[in-house]
Here is the input.
Amino acid sequence: MLVSSHPTPQSRILFHRRIRKRVRHLAPCLNLDADPYIVLVDGRLYRMVDGYTTSSHVPYSEPLFSARRWARDDSSQASIE
Here is the structure.
């Protein structure tokens, strides 16, 4: 936009272009999967990344390995068009 001579009302500046950075900025409490992927829905491409909530304290359970934390699988997903 700064170098374009034809900005429109729909023009936008993306401060966080990478999907992991964007999701981390919006939901810093999630542990994000390392590999975002693309899905095709109704002819449109969306970038997806899986996010997981983790905890070192789970009620009524014991850790399997002391270095590991419990994680709930597929606790959230983010999509960016």
